[in-house]
Design goal:
globular, 4 helices, three-stranded antiparallel β-sheet, about 70 residues, mainly alpha
């Protein structure tokens, strides 16, 4: 899966939004705990108003974490 596919899927699930909250991200990834999502997947990303994460940044972070060798 490439970054652009991830971006498209997140934008589709958020109805065309460019930003996702930690709760939305956790739900889309099948996680029950948004705190875990923030601590692991969203850590280090800039959040607008401390709440909204730019979807392309989130996709880039996911690609970095999911490198298969």
């Amino acid at each position: 899966m490439v970054k652009q596919e991830i971006v498209r899927r997140f934008e589709k699930e958020t109805r065309g939004q460019a930003f996702v909250t930690a709760a939305q991200f956790a739900g889309l990834m099948g996680m029950k705990d948004q705190g875990y999502a923030k601590r692991t997947y969203l850590k280090g990303l800039e959040a607008v108003d401390g709440k909204y994460y730019f979807i392309p940044d989130v996709a880039k972070k996911l690609m970095e974490r999911c490198v298969f060798t």
